Amino acid sequence: MKILILGSEGFIGSHLVEYFRRQHEVSGAGLVPEPSQPYRYFQVTAANPDWLSIFQSQTFDVCINAAGSASVPYSMQHPGIDFEYNVLHTKQVLETIRLHSPRCRYLHISSAAVYGSPRSLPVKEDHHIQPLSPYGWHKYMAENLCREYTYIYNVSTAMVRPFSVFGPGLRKQLFWDLYQKSKSGDKKIELWGTGNESRDFIYISDLCLSFDLIMQHSSFKAGIYNIASGEETTVKEAAGLLFAELDKSIEITFNNHVREGDPLNWKADISGITRYGFAPKISFAQGIKNLGQWLRSLS
Q: What is the CATH number of the domain that holds 141?
């Protein structure tokens, strides 16, 4: 199978390249001049990515879109740029596929941020949509573009809503912030919230597995899939486990203030993907050990 991964040098994209190149012909596109591993690579610019030349260079069976902006705080400060990267670029890719590669199936990476703070748990794919940030709204707009291109133009699309993805290589969000704070020398570290906020964490290799199963089994009729472990973990638990790997002497406190754009509690209903045979292979505890080992290697 010939697979094109957009955003192939980002956290998720680079792991997808590593996963799929074992058995498939993988190409990728990203912003950096040189790829981090051997595969066919196209450098693009954020301001004006040339998707057309990529799709004209070869016929692809599947395009996975792991590109775009992926920061809630950044979207709060720069909603226009976030809209351009997460909505306009998605439209450009879909239009290129419609006109130049209509047999290419398109797998879009959305986000659990579309749910905001869910009214009930676990969250099913048909749960009420109420994003808390421009990032979440823009991800939902991109989903609707996928529906439009499937329902009107017969472009084959599927969408995934990953929850809290983590693993080696992730240089942002909760665990990276904790690592950065651990290097400050302070033995008492303050975090946002109460500590009772919860997330549904999924290890990066399990995310890749879920994509593989979707590509094998989905009808690509604009279906949506929650991608998570189906288990709820508090931020206090998660931070404690990571500091047990990095520095057990650190004391964690919480400021009891909710950061703008952050949801309170997340736990996914993953029955949509488990019907394809999905089951997480890496436990949260093991994933944290792997992450801690990688973070220690950076010091």
A: 3.40.50.720
Residue 180 resides in a domain: no
DSSP character at residue 87: I
Helix (H) or strand (E) holding 202: strand 201-203
Q: Verify cis geometry, omega within 30 degrees of 0, for the bond prior to 122.
A: yes
- The answer to whether the beta carbons of residues 181 and 254 sit under 8 Å apart is no
Question: d(Cα 142, Cα 149) in Å, to the nearest integer?
Answer: 11
- SS3 at position 237: helix
**Residue 244 CB partners (closer than 8 Å, separation 6+):** none
For 11, the enclosing helix (H) or strand (E) is helix 11-20
Rounded Cα–Cα distance for residues 34 and 247 (Å): 35
The radius of gyration of the chain's CA atoms, rounded to the nearest angstrom, is: 19
pLDDT in tens, 221-235: 999 999 999 999 999
Residue pLDDT, tens place only, 73-119: 999 999 999 999 999 999 999 999 999 999 999 999 999 999 999 98
